Amino acid sequence: MNDKKTSRLRRAAKTRATISRLKATRLTVHRTNLHIYAQVIDATGQKVLASASTAEKELRAGVKNGGNAAAAAEVGKRIAERAKAAGVTDVAFDRAGFAYHGRIKALADAAREAGLKF
Questions:
Q1: Structural domain includes residue 42
Q2: What beta strand segments (E) does the chain contain?
């Protein structure tokens, strides 16, 4: 059965296979209707080096709605700061099969502006 989730996960698997072959640290994102989540995962895929999301208490207080582009941009800025604090500047962007548009694009652009290279 080819529903939306299965198709998205199939697209994500191809991207993750390429990133694992490159042995690159990856910035992965996950999007739900209410929130957006970002993690920086080391090259082995075993350890989360940094994470940020709109579900965090201090960010929930600052943004009215976690499911919009403005909130995603704030998460992008935070994940870049935390990744740099963990000593990571170069990452591969793993959009997890989501279209590079809207909130995903806003997060990526904000992370680039804050100093992450991908």
A1: yes
A2: 26-31, 36-41, 48-53, 92-94
